[in-house]
Amino acid sequence: MTNTPAFPTGTILGYPRIGRRRELKKAVEAFWAGSLSADDLEATAAGLRQSTRERLAGLGLARADSSIPESFSYYDQVLDALCTVGAVPTRFAGLVDADGRIDLAGYFTLARGEGEHAPLEMTKWFDSNYHYLVPEIGPETDFRLASDRIVREFEEARAAGFLTRPVIVGPVTFLLLSKPSDGAPADFQPLDRLGDLLPVYAALVSRLAAAGADWVQLDEPALVSESIETPRAEVLGAVEFAYATLGRLAERPAIFVAAPYGSLDDALPVLAGSPVEAIGLDLVRGSIPAAVPGLSEKTLVAGVIDGHNIWRGDLAGAFDAAARLLDLSPNVAVSTSTSLLHVPHDVEDESSLGADLKGWLAFADQKVGQVAALALGLADGRAAIQPVLDAATAALEARRTAPGVRDGAVRSRAEALTEADFSRGDYAIRLAEQDKALGLPLLPTTTIGSFPQTGEIRRARAQFLKGTLTADEYRDLMRAEISRVVDLQEEIGLDVIVHGEPERNDMVQYFAENLDGFAVTENGWVQSYGSRCTRPSILWGDVSRPKAITVEWSSYTQGLTAKPVKGMLTGPVTILAWSFVRDDQPLGDTARQVALALRDEIADLEAAGIGVVQVDEPALRELLPLKKKDHAAYLDWSVGSFRLATAGVAARTQIHTHLCYSEFGVVIDAIRNLDADVTSIEAARSRMEVVGDIQAHGFDHGIGPGVWDIHSPRVPSVAELTELLEVAVAGIPVRQLWVNPDCGLKTRGYEETVASLRNMLEATRIVRAELGAGQPA
User: How far are the Cα atoms of 38, 352, 759 from residue 357, in angstroms, in the given order?
Assistant: First the structure.
């Protein structure tokens, strides 16, 4: 390529796509429900894309120089890449036309499943709380340019007067995040198909060039991760081959390779030596690299604004970091470290946050403004933006000295901890005590905790918050729902009962609202997966528990049944992972504060007669650092915080934990070290792949591999559930096994929930009978 176009001086890697008031979520769910047509959904999406472009231009990103990324998705960016390159698994062949194309209904079937179509597996996107759909690639995958949606959205923007920058997951990351399809040879890896995939990427970028695109952004976050199982030398060879191939194209846009979530390390020289024109560097998670051959010829895109958290941050330090890159290349641009899909839209949408706290924060729109300011500083000199830098520095100092940020009593308690505070003693002794206290059958059944949150429940909560329901009226409504849920579980035949959590808006926010040191938002929504959105709480100060949180609800529930009731708490690691956490002290220090608050709650539950307590840690794997050198320190404080929260109970009290979409085998030693009596895990979408991990590594505590994928609206049949349970029984000692869904049932409807639970219980009865009534565990 000749005459490389100038890269914009300020840009972002991506922007929230759900809409400022979750317009996309609502439209997609209406389409699923049949109340919105495909054409109307497309129109809603087009309107959101246009409003995003206008908003970004108004915040300081130029509309005519590729500074605005075209990063929209209906569900997931990896699914979009899959559909673009025609990699629809053969088991979905009936959804694909002769040209390899799939319509919107088929696209969502890949994501959610329907009827006999089980959905694609879903797992965490690097160390974020975003989930992506896992492509299934095999020797049979027929790559082709099956969708031109990316081209059409670029053309849509250009027709409206915007020269945007199309964004797609890069070819190396796409294959590294894929899994071999069923039936693929044992030695096959999706990366083996890189040579067949690249012509499709070449066709796509050539189409974009013909449409008038100056730049294309290829996201390659897999290059910063050492958690990818493929040998590093093969990854680097793939990078070299891929970008040499794409770089040779005569007609193409300039290529910007973005590598968020960490430092490129040994991948940087490979990219520097390739024909790509721009390289994105995450300088929030990474550091200024050393000079390498070829780097001075590239545009270096300095990811100095944190796209992963919501703090206003040290803007002067960010400017200095970007300026230091000028020692490596004369062409430097300013950007966010990651896509802004991980943060809410606009802090100005929050009317209930105090002025001081709002002054410490930067949501997506504020971060765009920071990028624009730093870009101006690089172009015109530091003096041009000195007032902006000074204001950010003053906010940092105000935050450091504000009341509540540091609490002497909380810190003194944490400093006084001893080794004994982290240990429960011998598991065999606990197991005997729990068997005696609980008297559970072989293959005990339970759920993960939550039951469907109906419209009536949500309305009651909203009315209570508005003051149109009194506390007594609200309590009576919640108790009525709990009683109904208990009766349902008794009738279905579950062995360990939950109260269903009708009073909880969110598994983290509920605790944040009842702990000191947290704030919650009104409109701070971020996308977790598909149409699923959460409002992460803001952990801004030292954490303590002013009073009991869950005891009243659990005690009431236990009074309704003779069966064991499971108290339900969210663990310290997950509370951190699913909140925006203070960045002014080590995460381990904050985790211990949260753990001590939970330890007090567990003690109160035990004193109230609750004999089973579940402390959910679905985010344990999520926060695992992408660099192996950082694993030991992370696992030390994360496992330690769970043990601190749970180690104060008697041997007879059974501690459960739950993990979902967490690649169990990667952290099995850490899970063992949690020392929970029972661990429930996601296993249905992967068809019990975790059983092999358990066999390979060994695991002697209770284990509940989920048999029902609750992230799909499908009702699994008795035969399907029986087959999964038989796989578990064949690979794991029966004495250890529990039967449960993959995750909580909050997002499901009651009709599918009841049908699925009945099928789960029938499958359990079948397998119990196969084992023989008198067979020992």
Answer: 42, 10, 49
Cα distance between residue 676 and residue 66, in whole Å: 51
- Which pTM was predicted? 0.91
Query: Tokens 């997002």 correspond to what residue?
Result: 747
User: To which residue do tokens 């023989």 refer?
Assistant: 772
CA nearest neighbour of 722 among 681, 771, 677: 771
Long-range contacts of 766-769 (CB under 8 A, 24+ apart): 766/718, 766/722, 767/443, 767/722, 767/725, 767/726, 767/729, 768/441, 768/442, 768/443
Please indicate whether residue 711 is annotated as part of the active site: yes
The overall average pLDDT reported for the chain is: 95
Contact between 159 and 121 under an 8 Å Cβ cutoff? The reply is no
What phi, psi does 677 have (nearest 5°)?
-70, -35
Catalytically annotated residue among 308, 345, 499, 711: 711
Best CA proximity match to 473, nearest among 482, 484, 460, 462: 460
662-710 pLDDT, tens per residue? 566 667 888 889 999 999 998 887 888 888 888 887 789 999 999 998 8
Residues 6+ apart with CB under 8 A from 771: 442, 443, 729, 734
What residues does 255 pair with on adjacent strands?
Answer: 216
pLDDT 10s digits, 358-402: 999 999 999 999 999 999 999 999 999 999 999 999 999 999 999
CB 301 within 8 A of CB 7: yes
Distance in angstroms (rounded) separating the CA atoms of residues 534 and 128: 13
pLDDT tens, residue by residue, 236-255: 999 999 999 999 999 999 99
Q: Looking up tokens 């012509």, which residue turns up?
A: 199
DSSP line for 232-281: HHHHHHHHHHHHHHHHT-SS--EEEEE--SS--TTHHHHHHTSS-SEEEE
Polymer length of the chain? 777
Strands 566-570 and 612-616: parallel
How wide is the angle at C-alpha 580 spanned by C-alphas 62 and 682, nearest 5°?
Answer: 110
